Fold this protein.
Amino acid sequence: MSGITRREFLAASATAAAAAATGTQRTLAAGETRMIKIEKIELFPMCYPMTGYFKFFTGPHGAAGRAAVVIKITADNGEVGWGQSVPIAKWSYETLETATIALRDYFAPVLIGRDSTDMEGAHAEMDKAIAPGFSTGMPITRAGVDIALHDLTGKLQKKSLAELWGKPKGEPLLLSWTVNVRELKEVDAVMEEGRKRGYRNFNIKVAPDPAFDAELAKLVRKNAPDGFLWADANGGYDPESALKAAPMLAGAGADVLESPLRPNQISGYQKLKKLGALPILMDEGCVSPIEVAEFIKLGMVDGIAMKPARCGGLLSNKRQIELCLENGLMWLGSGLTDPDISLAAMLGLYSAYGLKKPAALNGPQFLTADILKTPLRIEGGFAYVPDGAGLGIEVDENKVVELMKKSGGDRILKG
Ligand SMILES: [Mg+2]
């Protein structure tokens, strides 16, 4: 990607896109049913403007905002499903550019013409198009497709996400406010902003320095004596520092420690869990249900912090939640600073599965634009699950195009 700007890249992508094929629809006899096929896939690469400091959105690409590719899948009966891929280069290896290429040149071509409601089959085709490395290939990118197919299937079957899964409509979700500071003197102001908006629970970003992190946890605990205090290291300690940090964070009032180490530090996780200073959770590295089952068997974790974007979408994430429930493990709901469509999918998932703890879904904290006709209802530290078929949201295509143009992107059409 060196040598050209993001704007030039996205414009070039659009120029290279294939023209739309004209779908042929035949008239059906009364009562006749037929397979509803995926007819076309449109991509809208964009960046959401942001506010506040968050370590994953720094540097030249981060400064452009929260990258996202909005995915519109149209079936051959005209029904539409919306999804959203949400890469963050500083969190994992997928970027706006690679997500756009993978969707345009690898995933969309194998999906067009397929049964709109065959999600397992769609994932199998995507596995063939981009093979797994250690685990599922391009999970963040493909999660957007998975979400769009859930939305489309729900609309075709007139069912909400919970209804598709045979679950009751869940409760609104309590949210957690993210405290990511460079200096301890920033803590009070960041927490006050959350408190003003009704938040009473806080997640802190820790590592690599256990001493700083313990002071941070102490301060947050002092300001929120009754809140759930969740420390997330994003794999940022080495094994020795993590063993030091866990009891220090416990002493400072933290309730859980998430991702103390990179996921390939298997023996480190085993030692931390054995130490028992805090419940040890994993996030990064839980890409497919297969390794989650292995991590549980290996005695590495007390629980998993979920996020559909990390693991290829809702289908895989549902199985990860079920694995936690079957094994008596804790599960928490987290996110990737998700905007609109991705956030709606997570609200539907976590609510349907009865999430008990506050969810670290910080899109509403950091993002300053939306692309929905009616924005998601976030009030008093709660997020309300939208009602209706599929994701229950109505995407405003004019807003999508406007935000895409503002960020230098261009619509890509495959079909
Ligand atoms: Mg995390």
Observations:
- The longest strand covers residues 38-48.
- Residues 11-26 have pLDDT under 50 and may be disordered.
- The chain has two domains: 6-14+37-158+396-414, 164-383.
